[in-house]
Design a protein that fits this description.
The complex is a heterodimer of chains A (284) and B (347).
Chain A (H helix, E strand, L loop, with lengths): L14 E2 L4 H6 L4 E2 L2 E7 L5 H11 L12 E6 L6 H14 L10 E5 L3 H21 L3 E7 L1 H5 L7 H25 L2 E6 L1 E3 L15 E3 L2 E5 L2 H5 L4 E8 L6 E8 L7 E7 L2 E5 L11
Parallel strand pairs in A: 3-7, 3-11, 4-5, 4-6, 6-7
Antiparallel strand pairs in A: 1-2, 8-10, 9-10, 11-12, 12-13, 13-14
Chain B lengths: L9 H9 L5 H6 L2 H8 L3 H18 L4 H6 L5 H9 L3 E2 L4 H6 L4 E2 L3 E5 L6 H11 L12 E6 L6 H22 L4 H6 L2 H6 L1 E5 L3 H17 L3 E7 L12 H22 L2 E6 L1 E6 L2 E6 L2 H4 L5 E8 L2 E8 L7 E7 L2 E4 L1 H9 L1
Parallel strand pairs in B: 3-7, 3-10, 4-5, 4-6, 6-7
Antiparallel strand pairs in B: 1-2, 8-9, 10-11, 11-12, 12-13
Helix pairs in contact in B: 3-4, 8-9, 12-13
Classes of the chains: A alpha/beta (284), B alpha/beta (347).
Chain lengths: 284, 347
């Protein structure tokens, strides 16, 4: 066993653009490789949109912040938004006409249960090795969403909860191993549940709790899963007032201070909006 | 009487016996300065006696094993004296250092746990940088081993913290030692990166194998003063049907780390995750890996949110009283909490 020489590792860990410079700035360059990033938010907050856009922008060359890489998109909610992917890739092609059809570089797979996902990891590994020699290597793995796999099959009993958390760590351990071996950026999405009472433990930076659509929420799957991701990004929406406001906030990340950015979802994709009055950062 | 075999003057022999040094082992275990103080001779004379005792001891026992078997013995008095010289690694947060009696202590195993995002990895990286502060600046000038099981170690963050640390040292030298200017030029963020031995482990078998190998590694790479395991927990929360096996593996690992800490006089810091535990009808937060694991470390620090502030609480320690202190995670690394700075200013 040899230690890795930190001087030989890139001084700024590799990132993959999410397809918008404003959001990239909020994430300090994009989604980090060798690591698991979680997007958490209520339904309709833009998680899937962001993941689809990421799967496309990963194909950009590194001069544009991408990885020149293909992506694997594992979906657990049905149906897979093919039409939206088509629409986004149309916009992608007009802005980058020199690249081949981006849909050819997104590999889609459905998964129906947590056990199936766990057993799929070796298959993904084989596929990753194969993809290195055949096409552009796969560097992005998206799982949309992880919460859907766990929300029905498990009772609220001791043994089921234990089985559930052992699956969490199994899946996360497998994904982290792949992320390390192939330099993957792994992105998972998670749902939210309503915040009930004081029983919930505060996790992360947002001191006033997480609010979406005027309700206080907290990420699904609890504390054990929170240990299974490296970074957590919260997507919220707020429909009070004339316009729908969406916001992306960093809850915790080893390399990021607390930061946030507003964003919009349009036909051509997800776009960050510069805050008109820049808010002073409260706590880091 | 073993002392009688030593080729030294009768008066010295008498003094040795009067001071309680009746066996060669007792002499061999003493340091030259202790011996000189106890029998009122000069340091060089004491050193000579030590050398003679060592030589006689070896020739007396050609197999040479029994010395090593009983070599670990030490009186509480010696230990107290050692304690005075024990070294600490600063956390860069003065409040936290204060409740820890100066920082993370060498020779000890310290466990630090808390919820995700509280700053466990940040403290780990800060310690890996701070252990390298040269002795001229009150540090140890050592190297660090960083065992990463979760993949949260980010080089860009290490660079940020290292740069801030070097800036602080430059400021310190400007304040106190106007003559130390050349010393600061020697430190460069790249040197700091170079002196962190980074291991990324992807399974619990790798983790155990690596810890078994560390003894050899530290022999080859001198000056390692801290081992950071971030986190000790992650791989042990998957794949274990047999909890008794898990407990055995964990306590064996902890024992190995404790041995390394004593043998090489280095600090071991294990970062742990938290879990909820059902106690008396309500869920309470506790560190992961169960009750028997909680015996495996010397000190235990729990990190928690108190309102808007991060706090560290000494949950278990044989020598420190339980206390808590606020800290904050800034772009420059771990620092004093801003609100406590205000309090000091107001007073």
């Amino acid at each position: 066993m040899r230690p890795e020489n930190l001087l030989l590792l890139p001084h700024r860990s590799e990132k993959c653009t999410v397809g918008c410079p404003v959001l990239d700035r909020c994430l300090n360059g994009g989604v980090p490789c060798h690591s698991i990033t979680e997007f958490v938010g209520e339904s309709g907050s833009g998680k899937t949109q962001l993941c689809l856009q990421l799967a496309l922008s990963a194909q950009l060359p590194s001069s544009h912040g991408g990885l020149s890489a293909s992506s694997i998109f594992i979906h657990t909610e049905f149906p897979f938004p093919f039409r939206r992917l088509r629409q986004l890739s149309g916009a992608f092609r007009t802005s980058h006409p020199d690249l081949p059809d981006p849909c050819d570089r997104v590999f889609v797979r459905a998964v129906h249960s947590a056990d199936e996902l766990l057993h799929l990891i070796p298959t993904i590994e084989t596929f990753l090795v194969y993809s290195r020699s055949r096409w552009r290597p796969v560097r992005i793995v998206v799982i949309d969403s992880i919460a859907a796999l766990f929300r029905s099959d498990f009772e609220n009993t001791g043994s089921d909860l234990r089985r559930r958390s052992s699956l969490f760590f199994g899946i996360s351990g497998g994904l982290r191993r792949l992320a390390k071996r192939f330099g993957l950026a792994v992105v998972v999405t998670n749902q939210v549940v309503d915040f009930i009472g004081d029983g919930n433990v505060r996790v992360g930076n947002l001191s006033d709790g997480l609010y979406s659509s005027g309700r206080r929420v907290c990420p699904a799957l609890g504390l054990a899963w929170a240990h299974c991701v490296n970074s957590r990004v919260f997507l919220s929406r707020d429909e009070n007032g004339p316009v729908r406001r969406r916001r992306m906030s960093v809850v915790f990340a080893p390399h990021l201070p607390h930061s946030s950015s507003q964003f919009l979802i349009k036909g051509e994709g997800v776009f960050g909006v510069e805050d008109i009055q820049s808010e002073p950062d409260k706590t880091v | 009487m073993e002392v009688g075999m030593l080729p030294i003057s009768a008066s010295k022999r008498g003094k040795l016996l009067a001071a309680g040094y009746t066996t060669l082992d007792a002499i061999a275990r003493a340091s030259a300065s202790h011996l000189a103080r106890d029998i009122e001779v000069s340091d060089s004379e004491a050193l000579e006696i030590l050398n003679l005792a060592a030589k006689t001891g070896v020739s007396d026992r050609p197999n040479g094993t029994s010395t090593t078997v009983v070599g670990g013995g030490q009186t509480a008095w010696d230990m107290l004296n050692d304690e005075k010289f024990s070294s600490y690694i600063t956390t860069s947060c003065v409040d936290l250092d204060n409740i820890l009696g100066g920082g993370i202590k060498c020779k000890d195993v310290t466990e630090i746990g808390g919820v995700p995002g509280i700053g466990k990895t940040q403290i780990g990286i800060q310690l890996a940088v701070n252990v390298q502060i040269p002795q001229g600046y009150g540090g140890l000038g050592g190297k660090a081993i960083y065992i990463d099981t979760e993949g949260s170690f980010m080089v860009e963050r290490v660079l940020q913290i290292a740069e801030a640390c070097i800036e602080d040292m430059a400021e310190y030298s400007n304040h106190f030692h106007k003559d130390l200017q050349p010393c600061e030029v020697k430190m460069h963020p790249n040197n700091i990166l170079e002196n962190i031995f980074y291991f990324r482990v992807c399974s619990y078998t790798e983790q155990i194998a690596l810890i078994n190998y560390l003894d050899k590694f530290i022999m080859e790479n001198k000056d390692v003063k801290i081992i950071i395991v971030d986190s000790v927990t992650f791989h042990f929360r998957q794949d274990f049907e047999d909890m008794a096996l898990r407990t055995r593996l964990l306590s064996e690992m902890a024992l190995k780390l404790m041995k390394l800490a004593k043998k090489f006089c280095l600090a071991v810091v294990m970062l742990n995750q938290v879990t909820t535990k059902f106690i008396e009808g309500s869920f309470q937060l506790t560190l992961a890996l169960g009750d028997s694991w909680s015996h495996s470390c010397t000190n235990r620090i729990i990190l928690f949110w108190n309102g808007n502030e991060r706090h560290a609480f000494i949950d278990k320690s044989p020598s420190l009283k339980s206390a808590s202190a606020p800290y904050s995670v800034t772009s420059r690394g771990i620092r004093n909490s801003t609100s406590s700075c205000k309090r000091i200013k107001m007073m």
